[in-house]
Amino acid sequence: MILINLLPHREAAKLRRKRDFNVAMFAAILAGVALAFLGYLWLQSQLADQAQRNQFLKTENTKLDETIKDVAGLEAEIQALIERQKAVEDLQADRNLPVQMINELVAYAPEGLYLRSLKQEGMAITMSGMAQSNERVSELLRRLNTESKTLVKPQLIEIVADKINISKTEQRPAFKFTVRALIQRPASEKADDPKGAASAGVKNG
Q1: Number of neighbours of residue 125 by Cβ within 10 angstroms
Q2: What is the pLDDT tens value at each position of the chain, 205 positions in all?
Q3: Rounded alpha-carbon distances, angstroms, from residue 70 to 73, 78, 126, 129
Q4: What is the domain partition of the chain in residue ranges?
Q5: By CB neighbour count within 10 A (0-12 exposed, 13-18 middle, 19+ buried), where does 58 fall?
Q6: Is the pTM of this model over 0.90?
Q7: Which of 60, 77, 182, 187 has its CA 20 to 30 A from that of 127?
Q8: 160 φ, ψ to 5°?
């Protein structure tokens, strides 16, 4: 009977399997390191791209902020020009207001009533005078309220019984009054009568 010693073959196979396992482990480690390195490179690339996009957005936002500031500055300049233009127009309109107010007061003051003083405070005017009766003062208020274009919302501040001198020896009963009204700039003819202006335009056409 022939006896064969298999121990060396088993040891060799065991060593071979161990070597193959070590090679596989080393290859797996190398593959893992390679994948990790590739992942790191990809992540760095993504971060760089994102940083570039962020910088682009920051630059564009800065440009947009500058544009907004420029627009705001232009709006402020336009508003200032509008206010200056309005101030000039108001001054031009105010030049004629005193004449218009005096003309209206002369036209609307009823007979038996006269004014002694006029005092303007801003866009309000206070007038004081004498009247033969309460009805004359009421008539002045009514006319100003319904017909005046420059004096609106008249209010009776005070009315008291008094006397006026007709001559050195004669006096008559009268009423001393104070009236306050607001000053209103009269609208232009077009604003007062747009239908008439339109009709005139149609006729002229």
Answers
A1: 21
A2: 555 555 666 777 778 888 888 888 888 898 888 888 888 889 988 888 898 889 989 988 888 888 888 888 888 888 888 888 887 776 666 677 788 888 888 888 888 888 888 888 888 889 899 898 889 999 999 988 888 888 889 988 988 888 877 777 777 888 899 999 988 876 654 344 444 444 433 334 3
A3: 5, 12, 48, 57
A4: 14-107, 109-183
A5: exposed
A6: no
A7: 187
A8: -135, 150
- Residue 126 near residue 161 (C-beta atoms within 8 A): no
Tally Cβ neighbours within 10 Å of residue 133: 14
H/E element holding 115? strand 113-121
Asked whether the beta carbons of 80 and 95 are under 8 A apart, the reply is no
- Four-way CATH pick for 109-183: 2.40.50, 3.50.30, 3.40.50, 3.30.1660: 3.30.1660
Position 189, amino acid? E
Rounded CA gap, 92 and 58, in Å? 51
Say how many residues make up the chain: 205
SS3 173: strand
Which stretches does DSSP call E strand in 76-148?
113-121, 124-131
CA dihedral 47, 50, 54, 56 (to 10 degrees): 120
